[in-house]
Amino acid sequence: MTSTGIGTPVVHAAGERRRFGSLGWHIGALLVLAVVLYPVIWVVGASFKPSKTIIGGLDLFPTDPIVSNFSGLADGISGISISSFFLNSLTYAVLAVVGVVLSSSLTAYAFAKIRFAGRNLLFTLMIGTLLLPYHVLLIPQYVMFRKLELIDTMVPLVAGKFLATEAFFVFLMVQFMRGLPRELDEAAKLDGCGHLRTYWSIVLPLSRPAIITSAIFTFINAWNDFMGPLIYLNSPSKYTVSLGLMMFRDQEGISNYGGQVAMSLVALIPVVAFFAAFQRYLIDGMATSGLK
Question: Which 3 state secondary structure label does DSSP give 113?
Fold first, then answer.
């Protein structure tokens, strides 16, 4: 029996449509990628330009690049070393990560594994805090910390991290812990483990993807935080990187754009390095968060 070949043009046409469709998706993805990466490319190019050519220049990369913007960072700003800004930001970010991981995971374990009266109501109220604007709490929190004489310290910035106030990360860990087998809890209980031992030895190690996901976002948020340090830190020696960038503009309105852009580029390195070191755990957390 011979083939008539009637369906061949139809198959070829369908194949051509799929190829054109795939090509269109790839071109669209590349365009979106270009838009997303444009600010980073602009910062890289501007960091090698003189300050007077950064604003208003149309070229992304200079024809005669300079490195004085980076070498000038070694001189500091207003007598303050650049390293102090990075050390302050690193301290803030590390304390925030430790606080969120410990407090949010412990709170999530209580909501996910312990049955107690009012659990659903408290969980609902906690999720409801996500709808509460940050600015609503800003004034009463500032007044409270001022009366406690904690202004110009790191305490107002990290205290909430150790009290499970980050409802999003608590919710993320609750959803992950609920997917862990109940048989593990029962086996730990038969072996004589209490809730604290079960949390520390069983649930916490198994929740590593969700914990590292929370740690990555917490580190990035703390490192990039501008409003919190602006409100609570007064001494320039205690400024974080985000506040240190403001010091490139003096009171007379003269700005060192070259140094500011160079420091902005250097400030990206810790975030990129932290994300690169733990990105596979972030992917694992996203992939396994719905598995039983």
Answer: helix
Q: In this predicted model, what pLDDT tens digit does every residue of 1-52 receive, in sequence order?
A: 455 555 566 656 666 677 777 888 889 899 999 898 888 888 889 888 888 8
Q: How far apart are CA 85 and CA 273, in angstroms?
A: 18
Q: Which residues of 106-134 are buried (b: 16+ CB within 10 A; e: fewer)?
A: bbbbbbbbeeeeeeeeebeebeeeeeeee
The residue ranges of DSSP E strands in the chain, in sequence order, are none
Answer yes or no: are the C-beta atoms of 175 and 209 closer than 8 Å. no
- The partner residues of 77 in beta bridges, in order of sequence, read 80
Amino acid at 279: Q
Looking at 16-25, 176-185, 238-247, which range is the least confident one?
16-25
The three-state secondary structure class of 80 is: strand
CA 176 to chain centre: 19
Q: pTM for this one?
A: 0.83
pLDDT at 151 over 90: yes
Q: Tokens 């990628």 — which residue?
A: 33
Residues 6+ away with beta carbon under 8 Å from 173: 104, 105, 108, 109, 112, 207, 210, 211, 214
Residue 155 is classified by DSSP as H
What's the CA gap between 240 and 259, in Å, rounded?
Answer: 16
Rg for the chain (alpha carbons), in Å? 26
How many residues in total does the chain contain?
Answer: 292
Per-residue tokens: 145: 């910390």
CATH homologous superfamily for 80-288?
A: MetI-like (1.10.3720.10)
Overall average pLDDT of the 72-77 stretch = 82
Where are the domain boundaries for CATH 1.10.3720.10 in the chain? 80-288
